[in-house]
Amino acid sequence: MNKQISQDKFLRYALVTGASRGLGKAIALELAARGIPTILTGTNEHVKEVCEEIRTYYGTPSICFKLDLTDVGNLKTVADTINAQYQVYLLVNNAGVGGTKDFVNASDRYLAHIVDLNVRGTVLFTHQLLPNLLRQKRSHILNIGSMAALSPIGYKTVYPASKSFVFAFSLALREELKHTPVTVSVASPGAMATNPEVCTRIRKQGFLGQLTLKPIDTIARKCVRQTLRGKRHIIVNPLSYFASSIFPNCIKTPILTNIVKKEIKYK
Hints:
- This protein has 267 residues and is an alpha/beta fold.
- Helix content is 54%, strand content 16%.
- α2 links the parallel β1 (12-16) and β2 (38-42).
């Protein structure tokens, strides 16, 4: 075991949170395809399966930790272990949660979970890993934002607000670290074709709901490529981003809220 840890100290790892499924898994597989060793975290046992897939199919080193970013004690324990045993040169803050509910009917736990994971978890985990990243000759942080950060959306309320925080936090941290070895990028993916159920739900939203839909491996590839180049803001779908940028919220918010209401009806 000690020999393994000693060997691992000579490797430089990419760390991906929320890597058991969705975009996190796709990014982990893209990194593995590039021959980059990975450290994967997740809240369930599926992250172990992703690790095994990477080691077996790609032949690249991959280790995993069970991590609940809303549990500050667990967050610090895992971060301390990683910092003591591994060199991290890429941190991908992918773990996040959204949802669609009437705000008045949403539970306290539901609302707090979005804030705790998307906002507090991202900030604290970045803070814990930053000394490790600063020790590298060149390193990167990728925060997964959302197109929702560009507009308030009824029936999602807290989620777009949390992603607006991630966007502002990322750009501010990038500016603060501009004279260090660390670059900070923020990605704005739109709707992602993660599975048939999601694709069907998005199609139910009509043309506007499908405007940003992209294959998840395409999004992962672009995110990794542009992060390693030090890109400030990674725009996955330029057309939808442009459309979202030129219209004021007084126009966008009612339209997007109406689209989300269709999602509630579908459920």
